[in-house]
Design goal:
Number of strands: 14
Number of helices: 20
Distance between the termini: 48 Å
Number of domains: 2
Structural class: alpha/beta
Radius of gyration: 24 Å
Strand content: 5-15%
Mean pLDDT: 93
CATH class of the largest domain: Alpha Beta
CATH architecture of the largest domain: 3-Layer(aba) Sandwich
CATH topology of the largest domain: Rossmann fold
Oligomer: single chain
Largest sheet: 6 strands, parallel
């Protein structure tokens, strides 16, 4: 089976590379000649663990190639994936479909034999039916089917998610499309994945509702963390106890500075707008968006409060800038709100991120010094703030940290460290959803002793 993937962004590149790993011949196509040239030179446009090695192996095996020639790739393909960007529109929360419509028109012009056109991009309800119409109008003689096959890839774990998913959602409109998808995903289904067939509209909706529900969980656990700080409850215990209920589960119950990335912010906004367009009000999603927006500002306020109510003239070390570890993606990251708020309050920032520095420097300006490593960022800092929980930040030499800093204040927005360890090393430690041990209240430490050992 010959496969063409249109778009070499995050989704397209991972999709094409993983399919080539399963033995299919794949051509990844992009109009960006510079990006294609770099991929041919084995220069990665994104950071994703393990992706570079898979590309190297499959190019050597002649199963994977990169090209700017969409006509040739589509003309030879049995399956064409559309994986172009659908960025959020400028005027509302709906995705901009300019690129996906353009891709559909290019595909239509170059179809030769029967071809299954699969939409991987996240698109509003009704888009796949419109794509059928676009292709049919441009090429009335085309022999093709369209399928909606939304992706559920986590940045930093995308290869594992593609190769070993819990389920594969496929919106179809013909038996022929069903048969082709069954053949295409057979190697993955043999590993236990379930291939779930439904309509175009249901598949499109599943994508948005999945991301919105996960976003709701994050927003809720963040607000519960605030409640825990006020009451003496421990968010680790609360999240663990709640997550042990099989109806809920423990995923996405870790508090932090708010969700970000390319999916949750965009998809919750789109679902909200789609609902409004048909006269509905999904108030839980609307509240989640508002909660998440306020959350990021509140985290900057938390840092300022920990620093005594003012960061004017103070040096703040910031560790982690990307929206999550395992990726160089800065989109909608909490740092893009927290850092500017601290700068506005008069702070000087010394920042470090293992993979996000280049992109962060494009989006964050002002009194910021970009540092070579985590310890460099701490030099004479009045406070250390952990925004992204990269693994290398989990085992810092605390004695060295204290010696480097001007003031031993750590604001841990990811609960990376144990409170007891930080206090024993002489830090004033502020975390999320956990009360600091207060003199005269040793029972708080006693109750959480098990948590601290396990944390």
């Amino acid at each position: 089976m010959q496969i063409a993937v249109i778009g070499t962004g995050y989704v397209g590149l991972v999709t094409g590379v993983c399919l080539s790993e399963f033995g299919f011949r794949v051509t990844c196509v992009d109009k960006d000649a510079d990006k294609i040239a770099k991929l041919q030179q084995h220069i990665m446009p994104i950071f994703e663990p393990g992706l570079d090695k898979l590309i190297e192996n499959n190019r050597k095996a002649a199963r994977l190639s990169f090209s700017t020639d969409i006509a040739e790739a589509v003309g030879l393909a049995d399956v064409v994936f559309i994986a172009v960007g659908t960025p959020q529109g400028d005027t509302d929360g709906m995705p901009n479909l300019t690129y996906i419509n353009a891709a559909a028109k290019e595909i239509a012009k170059n179809l030769k034999n029967y071809t299954l056109v699969i939409t991987k991009s996240t698109v509003p309800v009704g888009t796949n039916r419109k794509l059928v119409k676009i292709i049919s109008e441009i090429n009335p003689d085309a022999d093709f089917d369209v399928a909606s096959n939304p992706e559920f890839l986590r940045e930093g774990a995308a290869i594992e998610d593609f190769m070993s998913p819990e389920r594969i959602v496929a919106g179809i409109d013909s038996k022929r499309a069903r048969d082709m998808l069954t053949k295409l995903y057979e190697p993955i289904c043999l590993n236990g994945a379930k291939l779930f067939f439904t309509t175009f509209e249901s598949a499109e909706t599943i994508k948005y509702v999945t991301n919105s529900m996960l976003a709701v969980r994050i927003a809720m656990i963040n607000e519960v963390a605030d409640f825990c700080e006020k009451t003496g409850a421990n968010i680790r215990d609360v999240a663990k106890g709640v997550g042990m209920d099989y109806r809920i589960g423990e995923k996405f119950l870790q508090p932090g500075p708010g969700y970000g990335g390319s999916c949750f912010p965009k998809d919750t906004m789109a679902l909200q707008e789609m609902a409004r367009n048909v006269g509905c009000n999904i108030s839980i999603v609307e509240a989640t968006i508002q909660s998440n927006t306020k959350r990021k500002v509140k985290m900057a306020e938390k840092v300022i409060a920990a620093a005594g109510g003012s960061v004017e003239g103070k040096t703040i070390a910031v560790l982690g800038l990307t929206f999550k570890p395992g990726t160089d993606d800065m989109r909608e990251g909490a740092s893009l709100v927290i850092v500017p708020e601290l700068l506005k309050a008069g702070a000087k920032i010394r920042a470090y991120d293992p993979h996000g520095m280049k992109e962060a420097a494009k989006q964050l300006t002002g009194n910021i010094e970009w540092c070579e490593d985590a310890y460099d960022a701490m030099e004479k800092a009045d406070a250390l703030v952990i925004i992204t929980e990269w693994n290398e930040f989990r085992s810092l030499d605390l004695k060295k940290v204290k010696a480097l800093m001007g003031t031993p204040l750590v604001v841990d927005l990811r609960n990376v460290y144990k409170r007891q360890d930080m206090m024993e090393n002489g830090f004033h430690y502020v975390s999320i959803g956990r009360q600091d041990v207060v003199p005269g209240q040793p029972w708080i430490a006693d109750l959480n002793m098990q948590d601290e050992k396990a944390a």
